[in-house]
Design brief:
Blueprint (H helix, E strand, L loop, with lengths): L1 E6 L2 E5 L5 H18 L7 H22 L4
Antiparallel strand pairs: 1-2
Length: 70
């Protein structure tokens, strides 16, 4: 990823092609949210840990399904 601040009103962000359309849509949504609501405040460690556990659980379930593991 490359981030360049071209002037006071313009920032350019470039991503690898491996990000794909779905990844770009997620990034675009995040940036639009930041533009609309401002930069988010710090998040508590508890919230980060809960989100991390949820993501890991979903990834593990997907891997088990893909590899036919019970």
């Amino acid at each position: 990823m490359v981030v360049e601040k071209l002037d006071k009103e313009k920032i350019t962000v470039s991503f690898s092609g491996t990000v794909g359309k779905k990844g770009l849509d997620i990034i675009k949504t995040c940036i639009e949210d930041i533009e609309k609501n401002g930069v988010p405040k710090r998040v508590s460690k508890k919230v980060i840990n809960e989100l991390s556990r949820e993501i890991n659980k979903k990834i593990w379930e997907r891997i088990k399904t893909e590899r036919n593991i019970k």
